[in-house]
Amino acid sequence: MTEFNNERPIYVQMADRLCDEILAGRYKPDDRVPSVREYSAMLGVNMNTSFKAFEQLSREGIIYNRRGLGYFVTQEACRLISEKKKKELMNRLPQMFRQMRLLGIGISDIVQLWNETE
Amino acid sequence: MTEFNNERPIYVQMADRLCDEILAGRYKPDDRVPSVREYSAMLGVNMNTSFKAFEQLSREGIIYNRRGLGYFVTQEACRLISEKKKKELMNRLPQMFRQMRLLGIGISDIVQLWNETE
Amino acid sequence: MTEFNNERPIYVQMADRLCDEILAGRYKPDDRVPSVREYSAMLGVNMNTSFKAFEQLSREGIIYNRRGLGYFVTQEACRLISEKKKKELMNRLPQMFRQMRLLGIGISDIVQLWNETE
Amino acid sequence: MTEFNNERPIYVQMADRLCDEILAGRYKPDDRVPSVREYSAMLGVNMNTSFKAFEQLSREGIIYNRRGLGYFVTQEACRLISEKKKKELMNRLPQMFRQMRLLGIGISDIVQLWNETE
DNA sequence: GTGGTCTAGACCACC
DNA sequence: GTGGTCTAGACCACA
How far apart are CA C43 and CA C50, in angstroms? Predict the structure, then answer.
């Protein structure tokens, strides 16, 4: 049972986490990712929940299935993940910026926070 | 029927929108905001949904209720809204920044986007 | 419990059937289709199975969801269904034709079968 | 690792392919077909998968087993394969025709596609 | 052993 | 009332 927040479905958070691991190089193209069973046991969730995460990534072309063998990372995984995440970010940022302006937050505050982060 | 996205509850989006209008000066302290009934009709949603939005803002001290008259903007509304939004933003930014680093997005890209926004 | 064959998953067959009904004009754009619960009861399957069928059609843009109200037929449903089915057919036919030639079946046999069908 | 699609079991596709080769005259009655081992290596699949394909064809009387020697094509192989395929085709066509009618595809379109094929 | 489908039943958010 | 998520457990096809 690892840390999941309740704002988004667990399977989405699991998919996200796997994406992060792929992006970080933990799993490379044609590497096998943990099986649904292993993944479930690892994170303390139901098999169907893991399966749903895998199914989604599969639909997005990030992993693929070889029957009876498991799920594997596609060649395009990194590219697809990056694109997806960038798109999400680029959609969210402009409206956040507008809100910040209304709240009196300036670019200098952002730069400072950036430098403090991590 | 106005445009709501399906990611967040409708009542949350309605509350948010009302906050934005208050922040923009559309409703000032002690101004009466539209009634639950008007608000529902305006946005084409169920009255219970509007009510839930008002109730939430009421709990947060942003509007108050005068029985039989409707909901009114509090004196502290703007301040409370600003604080709430700032807090939310400041919570979300650090994790976004970390993600951006992984994606190869730098502070310069952000500054540029900031300058382009609006 | 209605007639389902075991070759394809039940949820696929359910999705297919709903598509046929939409195509036949039984449900028109912005019509509400039966709820997951009704559909399950009607066909004698589990709610999750119905849900999976709806979810898939939803992803394909054939129906859409209005929260708490149910699923509704999109404006493009008919077009999307037709395209999907035509694509499937046009992929399958050529290889069937080649096989038929090998088996000594001619176009005249096909025409005859066509005229006898239905 | 040859190209198999994920819609049908691999062993079925393998059996199908072998049938096609027999029909094409690649293997004649009483010819020995490749061993399970060779076949597996050739196509890059598990030996059990090859075995399942052979076993199925054996049950259908298309090949027969001589202990310690391998599998051999029966005298009736071609006839059985043809019959099987014709039966399958003739079962599938009527429902395809009904679908086509719904999609506005006419017999003339089919004839045209027939003439264009191969 | 793997994934895939299905069931039954729970709980929640939302309308 | 609606859909959405999650759990628990069964059975099957496939390698």
Answer: 9
Q: What backbone torsions phi and psi does residue D24 show, to the nearest 5 degrees?
A: -80, -5
Residues in contact with C115: Cβ distance below 8 Å, sequence separation at least 6, in sequence order: D107
Residue identified by tokens 């080769």 is D21
D54-59: long-range contacts at Cβ-Cβ below 8 A with a sequence spacing of 24 or more?
A: D54/D15, D56/D11, D56/D12, D56/D15, D57/D15, D57/D18, D57/D19
| A31 C-beta less than 7 Å away from strand E | no
The token duo for D88 is: 């399958």
Question: Whole-model pTM above 0.70?
Answer: yes
DSSP H or E segment with residue B83: helix B77-103
Pick from C23, C99, C117: CB nearest D85: C99
Q: Tell me the three state secondary structure of residue C73.
A: strand
pLDDT digits 0-9 by tens, C1-25: 457 888 888 999 999 999 999 998 9
Calculate mean pLDDT across residues A71-76. Answer: 94
pLDDT in tens, chain B (118 residues): 456 777 788 888 888 888 988 988 889 999 999 888 888 888 888 888 889 899 889 988 999 988 888 899 999 999 999 998 888 888 888 888 888 887 888 899 899 989 988 7
Phi, psi of D86 (to 5 degrees): -60, -45
- How many Å lie between the alpha carbon of C81 and the closest alpha carbon of chain D? 9
D4 and D10 in contact (C-beta within 8 Å)?
Answer: yes
> Which residue from B109, B79, B82, B81 is spatially nearest to B96, judged by alpha carbons?
B109
Whether any strand E atom is under 7 angstroms from the Cβ of A54: the reply reads yes
Q: How many CB atoms lie within 10 A of CB B87?
A: 10
Q: Sort out which chain A residues have CB atoms less than 8 A from D10's CB and list them.
A: 67
Per the structure, the residue whose CA is closest to nucleotide F5 at C1' is A9
In this prediction, residue A3 has a pLDDT band, given cuts at 50, 70 and 90, of low
User: Does C2 contact strand E, using a CB cutoff of 7 Å?
Assistant: no
Closest among C36, C20, C34, C27 to C73, alpha carbons compared = C27
The crossing angle, in degrees rounded to 10, of helices D36-43 and D47-59 is 120
In 3D, which of B84, B96, B91 has the Cα closest to residue B12?
B84
